[in-house]
Amino acid sequence: MTALMEVTDVGRSFGGFVALAGISAKFERNKVTAVIGPNGAGKSTFFNVLSGVLQPSTGSIRFKGQELKGLKQHRFAHLGIARSYQITNLFPELSVEENVRVAAQALKTRYDVFSHRDRYPELSQKAEAALGEVGLTHRRARRARDLAHGEQRALEIAIALVANPELLLLDEPTAGMGPEETKDMVALIERLAADRTILLVEHKMKMILGLSDRILVLHHGRLIADGTPTAVQADPEVRRVYLGQNDGYA
Amino acid sequence: MTTTDLAAGQGVAPRALPKAGAALDRWRVPLTIAVLAVLPFVLPSQALAVNVLIYGLFTVGFNLLFGYTGLLSFGHAAFFGTGAYLTGMAIAHLGFGWFPAMLTGIVGASLLSAVIGALSIRTRGIYFCMVTLALAQLVYYVALQASGWTGGENGLRGFTVAKADLIGGFSVNLLNPLAKYYFIMFFAALALWFVSRVLNSPFGAAIEAVRENETRARACGFDVERTKLLSFILSGALCGLAGTLSALHLSIVPLDALSVHTSSIVVMMTMLGGAGSFFGPFVGALVFLLIEDVASLWTTHWQLIVGIVFILFVLFLPKGIWGSLIQLTRRRRAS
């Protein structure tokens, strides 16, 4: 099966500090891959490099065969890569529906100063569909900043989904959530995984083991394991540097 | 303005807007024009009414960048002054008619805003303020030095337009204050219609997104820098238009039109009226100019009074007069 995204020997340094080094991996279509590792392992840097926030210092990233290195970040969304953020990152003063609609608009029209917004009814339809998918239709008129935390995280995902991305990067989607909200989010990710490629950073091991087809383990910016959840769980190096800290698989 | 109905009739319910607010929003251009049309009859003097019109338009242009896009420029006098100077110079030195001279002013201000915008929009916050201020000061000193063209510190004089010839043999007598007011108001109305159109457009949604959250807007696929630059240019063009109208009104362009003082009063007018509100700029311009008018009769230090009022607004009414009224209406409806 051809990989949707192929990362070859990717590294990223900040001055003399090496945050990522020699990462190579392939992400196949319609699979869920989790990226785990202790704090400071380079997970967020890896995500930022894959989503165009940071340029890789070395190596290459190919998406559907196209080299992404050197592309501006906003182009990633147009190619079919969308992401959510570790810290809730919305348009706080806009309504829930406006949040999603404006995200859909970014891929359709950006500099049209003369038409009325209503000229693009398909954007509202897309927003409606994305809100339906994450279960926020009933909140569409509410201001984003007034939503509960779990709903805000769901809205983050709706914003990413409205672009109909082929690759969805989810950065700690359950961060700050209680057990009930986490359960809802896991169910949502499971639904999304049916026909999308998902790359996920999480700390909740039980959730990762249940959701993922494959796990990458980072430590000090290097890839120390890459395999199925069962294989990664049994890896002595992984147990030593990471899983030992998560005995309860919280 | 984040209250714009995005999806009426498109299957997705719009944000619950108070009815009064929605009506104000829908009819904002005709309502604003109607208020402006009666200003000469309700204000103490027609001179004050013209100033409210011109400075209100200047503030509308500034508000597009500050209130709607979230970029605080301290150099917008550069565009107002350039519009005024180029209009005056085109008439005085090149013998242009009033309309080509106006176009010269607007195009010149737009080009200048493209240059200053391209140099400044990559910076943020205080750095953006400082870069725009520094570049505007550069324009000020160029005008001061090029005294053969600009009149230097005495300002540009000698280009009175007594009559504006229109198509079809009609003309407007600009020596008649009321006729001149409505002549200027015609262009202000066109500008208001244009701004309203921009705010309702997909680009209007894009600048809202950039103002609300640059990081998220970029991740969604907006080219944030280009969006800001286009907003900067549109803002500069509108301020340039206000400058051209000021030149036609006064028949003189004082060097002060390019000064940091002019850059700061447009910030104050915006804050007094309400940043990010459509009618706020005219309210801000009216309040500022009224305070100036009244306070300058009592004391030569009238700026002190304006300063105190401004500080009180920033501390206790940060949304400005019109912005606070809108907020109050919404709260009442919500409760």
From TrEMBL, chain A:
Which SMART domains does this entry report, sorted A to Z? Answer: AAA
Q: Which UniProt keywords apply?
A: ATP-binding, Nucleotide-binding, Transport
Signal peptide residues on this chain, from the entry's feature table: none
GO cellular component, as recorded: plasma membrane
Annotated ranges, domain ABC transporter? 5-245
> Which GO MF term does the entry hold, naming one?
ATP hydrolysis activity
Please give the superkingdom of this protein's source.
Bacteria
Keyword ATP-binding among record annotations: yes
UniProt record similarity statement? Belongs to the ABC transporter superfamily.
Name listed for the protein in its UniProt record: ABC transporter ATP-binding protein
The species this protein was found in: Xanthobacter flavus
Q: What is the lineage of its organism?
A: Bacteria, Pseudomonadati, Pseudomonadota, Alphaproteobacteria, Hyphomicrobiales
